[in-house]
Amino acid sequence: MRVNFIIIFVLIVIINCSKSSIKTDINQNAVYYKSVFDKYQSENWVVRYQAIVELSNYIKTPFYDEIEILLLKATYDNHPKIKILSLELLSHLPSGRIINRIIDMASETKDDNVKLYALMTLSEYKSMVTYPIFVSGLESQDWLIRDVSMKGLLLINDYEDNNKIIPYILKGLNDPSDIVVITTLENLNIKDDKIYREIITIFNKVYKNNIKNSLLLACLHAIRGYRLDDDTRKKVINLLTDLNKDIRLLSLRILKDEKLDLKIH
Fold this sequence. Notes:
mainly alpha
């Protein structure tokens, strides 16, 4: 009986200590947040920038809402570096309350760097709400904007009709920048005959010119899961002896997957 009493007493002490510790942490966070908020009121952009840097250490605290409000305020800052930093932090906590502001930044800003980070942040939402912005980004003369826009489009996970995105996938596969083409190939998440034909066109060109690089690997990644045509299958078999280990392994996986698919069907 005495033992049980001691155990209960110890548990009560531990719980009270825990509550006291949590309360202390909250109070400390409140004081720190206020100091950061006050620092951000400075007219010196360097001081304001440092305030947002310090704020990044307290994103996952009970002051989530207050932090989000300050970051939202920072997106209106007149210095682009502060806008970019605020977008970087907001990408770690996507919120429906601020998505419209980020969409405005992506569509209206004249600063390509800010636009780029706004698009990167929007890609974290993976929502059809962002679809028009990414489609618009594909028309940019800047390959970086096109690249992040294509990735953002392919990350959207609630397409009701794949035909809505297929034309833009084909556009990405024919982009003048190899980086955009690779991004498109590596992030494909739908299968379609038109897409397959474009992938094979790229694959044949790379294979013929004996360019064994990231573009070839991206092509192999993209055709995995398709039932290959005879000519492509022969080329993939030939790649089993390639000097590049990654190419050999991926080629083997493609052939194994296809063999398994044929057995099932």
